[in-house]
Every structure is written in C-alpha cells, then in structure tokens.
Amino acid sequence: MIKKILKSYDYSLILAVLLLCGFGLVMVYSSSMISAVARWDYASDHFFVRQSIFVAAGFLVLLLAMFFPYRAYLQPVFLRSVVLISIGMLLAIFVFGSVAGGARSWFSVMGFKLQPAEFVKLSVILYLAAVYEKKQAYIDHFGRGVLPPIIFTGFICVLIILQPDIGSASIIAMIAISMVLCSGLGMKNIVKLLILGLAMVVLISPLVLIMWDDIFTTERVSRFTGFMDPFADAGDSGFHLINSYYAISSGGLTGLGLGESIQKYGYLPESHTDFILAIISEELGIFGVLFVLVLLAFIVLKGFHIARSCDDAFGTLLAIGISSMIGIQTAINVGGLTGLLPITGVTLPFISYGGSSMILLMLSMGLLINISMFVKYRSVYQKDEVKKTAELKGNAVPFQQN
C-alpha cells in the first residue's frame, strides 16, 4: 500500500516548486547583494542566507503536509482553532505588531518578522472549503448556505484593511469570490450577492467620506497617482514604477547577464521583494521572466485540474482556493511592476524574499500535492482493487454440499 501511495504523488508539482525556490534563491542573492551592504549595512549574502533558512523550513512543512491526509482538516476542533487563532492574531497585531512601510502588519519574533495576514489566507481557504462542503445540501439557501461564510470573510478583510494592508485583503477577497463561485451556487444567489455587494458600497460610502483623510493618506493616494501617471512625479510617487520600466526595457530578450543589474544599485529599493521580477527581466531578459511565469502557470493550472478531478467538495474547493491564491498573487505582483495595476506590496510566489510567504506557500503546496495523491490513488489503485474483487467473486466456485 505504501508503494502505491508513493507512486500516486505528483512529482511534477514538487519539481516545479523546487525549481522556483532554487531560482528564487539565486535571484534574491543577486538582487539584494548591493542593497544589503549599502542600505542596511549587512553582509552581502544576508538576505540569501535567511531566505535559504525559509526555503529549508518551508520544504519540511511541505513534506509534512504531503503525508497528512487532507480530510483530517475537516475536524471541527481543528477548524474552530484555526478560525480563533486567525482572528486572535489579527487583533493582537494592533497591540503587539511592528510598523514597517506605514503598516502595522508584522510581529517581530527573535529577529524574524511574522506576517499573520499570510497565514490567514490559508485559514480562510480551509474554512470556506469546509463550510461549503457541509452546506452542499442547502447551498442554494441564501440565509443558511451563502451568507454566513461571506460575513466571516468580510470581517477578516476589514481587520486586515485596518492595518492597513490593502494587498492581502484584496487577495483574500478574490480567493473567497473564486471559491464561492465554484461552490455550487445557483445564478439567483450570485445575483443576490452582487446586489448585496452594491448595497454595502452605498452604505459604507458616507463613512468613507467622513474618514476620507484617515483612509486615503498621502502615501496611499500616491500609489494610485503613480500608477495613473508615473512620469508626473518621477522623483516620488512614480519612482518605483519608472525604474521598474527601466529594468524591464534594458533586459530585452536575453538580459544584461546574471548579477549585472543596474537598477538594484538603489534605484529599486524593494529589488529583492516586490520588484524582483523586474531585476530578473533586467539580468536574464524575457527568457528568465518566462521561466518563472510558465512554472507558476503550470502550478496554477495543475491545481485547477486536481480540483476538477477530485470527487469530494472539500478537496475540490481546497485545490481551487490554493490555485487561486497563487494565481491572483502572481497577477497582482506582475501587474504592479508593469504598471497594469497599482503597486500594492504583494510579493511574487516562491521567488520574492519573505519567510511568512514562503512557509505559507510551501504548506499550501503540501496540501495540494496531498489532494492530488488521493485523487490518483482513488482513480487508479482503488478502482483496480474493486475490479479484482469483482473478478474474484465472478470466478468463485459455488460451495456444493455432498
């Protein structure tokens, strides 16, 4: 049985993750080696060493999640604990959190930064997958089957927005929308949700107007003005985006060469986090960018294929949530550094520097690989066992009494 289980694992997903992480380590070192010394007075390999620790810890988490049956997460005690811990961390951040980049979004623990919003993404995915599996019998009942999970997700998003972390809140909201749309809702309930959303916008609008100056600070507004016309304020709001353009355009097809970026010399302050793909484009050209995006697309599409093949609602929605999270986060990051979307501080999955993001992504991939294993095991080996059992029964010689 163990041999059959091991054969059922999707090793192409594991390989894709390892390739992305290995490539990300190289680019974290290349993009941060100058700023580590010049900006923070660290050793040139400071961020590379830390990211190596994050990747190693994340891979251990991935292995544990791979071998732990995903259906076990349906236990009510576990789900309640996850929800309560998530809410508790988001509330505690306002008291014990550290401020960085204008947001109180991190806990400082033994020299490392922990970002609760990253782990809350997976908590919301687990919660919605579990709730909507339970509600399949009355999924079209708006009051019982649709509304409660939406209210919970909205509450989580509000807590994250108040930090403020618009990027993470947007990702969670879009993940929730993708899971809700795939949960089996009828068109009538989808229309009701749209009407409810519009009604909430109308109700909240007066409050937004009253708190306009507190919500739309100069820094937040500058992200939109920099997105709309970066060259209007090239030295401030448009600084990051313009230098991202320079990095992308100077790379061309083949790039300037690994380690030869100019923009990482202080022109792109977040060169190893939010804008690492711009440095990849500058050093390795369009081929380096395609290498990353093709692998990420493979993971996302593979995840949706796993969801389609899964024969239970929990596994299906879990795979959809994880795939959507990686796809949405990639789209927002790429959109930000290319000027298609406002810059939100969202990192590129598996590539950008960051411990919380890496651990979350590895845990999520472990879950997805475990779902894939059970899908293949049930479709191949269990069917073979049923077939063999049926054949043995058909060929059995009836007992004849003398």
Automatic annotation (TrEMBL):
<keyword id="KW-0472">Membrane</keyword>
<keyword id="KW-1133">Transmembrane helix</keyword>
<comment type="function">
    <text>Peptidoglycan polymerase that is essential for cell division.</text>
</comment>
<keyword id="KW-0132">Cell division</keyword>
<feature type="transmembrane region" description="Helical">
    <location>
        <begin position="142"/>
        <end position="162"/>
    </location>
</feature>
<keyword id="KW-0328">Glycosyltransferase</keyword>
<feature type="transmembrane region" description="Helical">
    <location>
        <begin position="275"/>
        <end position="301"/>
    </location>
</feature>
<dbReference type="GO" id="GO:0015648">
    <property type="term" value="F:lipid-linked peptidoglycan transporter activity"/>
</dbReference>
<keyword id="KW-0573">Peptidoglycan synthesis</keyword>
<feature type="transmembrane region" description="Helical">
    <location>
        <begin position="77"/>
        <end position="100"/>
    </location>
</feature>
<feature type="transmembrane region" description="Helical">
    <location>
        <begin position="12"/>
        <end position="32"/>
    </location>
</feature>
<feature type="transmembrane region" description="Helical">
    <location>
        <begin position="313"/>
        <end position="332"/>
    </location>
</feature>
<dbReference type="GO" id="GO:0008955">
    <property type="term" value="F:peptidoglycan glycosyltransferase activity"/>
</dbReference>
<dbReference type="GO" id="GO:0009252">
    <property type="term" value="P:peptidoglycan biosynthetic process"/>
</dbReference>
<dbReference type="InterPro" id="IPR018365">
    <property type="entry name" value="Cell_cycle_FtsW-rel_CS"/>
</dbReference>
<keyword id="KW-0131">Cell cycle</keyword>
<dbReference type="Pfam" id="PF01098">
    <property type="entry name" value="FTSW_RODA_SPOVE"/>
</dbReference>
<comment type="similarity">
    <text>Belongs to the SEDS family. FtsW subfamily.</text>
</comment>
<feature type="transmembrane region" description="Helical">
    <location>
        <begin position="168"/>
        <end position="186"/>
    </location>
</feature>
<keyword id="KW-0133">Cell shape</keyword>
<dbReference type="GO" id="GO:0051301">
    <property type="term" value="P:cell division"/>
</dbReference>
<keyword id="KW-0812">Transmembrane</keyword>
<feature type="transmembrane region" description="Helical">
    <location>
        <begin position="352"/>
        <end position="375"/>
    </location>
</feature>
<dbReference type="GO" id="GO:0005886">
    <property type="term" value="C:plasma membrane"/>
</dbReference>
<feature type="transmembrane region" description="Helical">
    <location>
        <begin position="193"/>
        <end position="212"/>
    </location>
</feature>
<dbReference type="InterPro" id="IPR001182">
    <property type="entry name" value="FtsW/RodA"/>
</dbReference>
<protein>
    <recommendedName>
        <fullName>Probable peptidoglycan glycosyltransferase FtsW</fullName>
        <ecNumber>2.4.99.28</ecNumber>
    </recommendedName>
</protein>
<feature type="transmembrane region" description="Helical">
    <location>
        <begin position="106"/>
        <end position="130"/>
    </location>
</feature>
<feature type="transmembrane region" description="Helical">
    <location>
        <begin position="52"/>
        <end position="70"/>
    </location>
</feature>
<dbReference type="GO" id="GO:0032153">
    <property type="term" value="C:cell division site"/>
</dbReference>
<keyword id="KW-0808">Transferase</keyword>
<dbReference type="GO" id="GO:0008360">
    <property type="term" value="P:regulation of cell shape"/>
</dbReference>
